[in-house]
Design brief:
Blueprint: E1 20-28, H1 32-40, H2 45-48, E2 56-57, E3 70-77, E4 80-92, E5 96-103, E6 108-117, E7 123-132, H3 136-166
Antiparallel strand pairs: 1-7, 2-3, 3-4, 4-5, 5-6, 6-7
């Protein structure tokens, strides 16, 4: 199933703005199934998100999992309160899942989480985020000055928490 955000459609006579790509990789000394279970539990998002974002899940428990699950969040970006709705677009149990922002601050946010067995044991966590701010040339400037540095900082925080909770290789 493919879901396209409809809040900011691009007219057919105008090309879409280019996407930006963020990737991250981290190795942990835990079995892939355990690491997948940790990441696929939406309740762990609050643990993995920096406190300065004021991230809170608004979807009432019990939280759904798997393809088609939808979650509502609240967070603050540079003090500005935002709501975010995410769809779990794809789900391959124990291996990968993809979340897609349906509503939120981005024109596009498409995050693939992948988990690979390491040859000597443990798991490699791979993140691939395709994103686009929108707003034309102003969006490119906003991305360069604030968005990309924020994403880097958020994932550095996340990496430190993962290392503390799951270890490092």
């Amino acid at each position: 199933m493919m879901v396209e955000p409809v809040d900011n459609p691009v007219p057919e006579d105008r090309p879409a703005m280019p996407e930006d790509l963020f990737t991250a990789s981290q190795d942990v000394p835990r079995p892939r199934e355990e690491v997948f279970r940790f990441f696929s539990d939406p309740a762990n998002l609050e643990r993995l998100t920096p406190p300065w974002l004021g991230f809170r899940i608004l979807t009432p428990a019990p939280l759904p999992t798997g393809a088609g699950a939808v979650f509502e969040y609240r967070l603050k970006v540079h003090g500005l309160p935002l709501r975010w709705r995410t769809l779990i677009e794809t789900w391959e149990e124990g291996h990968r899942f993809t979340d897609l922002q349906l509503r939120g601050p981005y024109a596009l946010w498409h995050h693939t989480h992948e988990f690979l067995d390491l040859p000597g044991g443990g798991t490699r966590i791979l993140d691939r985020v395709r994103y686009r701010v929108g707003w034309g040339p102003i969006g490119s400037l906003v991305t360069a000055l604030w968005v990309r540095p924020d994403i880097d900082r958020i994932f550095r925080f996340r990496q430190a928490i993962i290392e503390r909770l799951l270890g490092s290789t």
